[in-house]
Model the fold of this input.
Amino acid sequence: MIYLELFLTFFMIGAVTFGGGYAMISIIEDTCVERKKWITHEEMMNMTVIAESTPGPIAINCATYVGYKLAGFVGAVVATFGIVLPSFVVIFIISK
Done:
């Protein structure tokens, strides 16, 4: 059930956060470090630095890292899909 938990966690982060990836960093840290204890504070800091220096949105890179750490490649895909889906749905609805 880790896949469902990853998806729902990152879906909720993506759905309620406005302001871009940097606004999501504190919510990702609170959720993944403090509440769920999926990663340590040190891992979060390292992940943030790496996500800033790699191409792509920072929040998506962070979700991908957490998903991969917890559940391998499939976990990375699930977490990435979860954080991207809310924005995609909103833009899709607006475009119609």
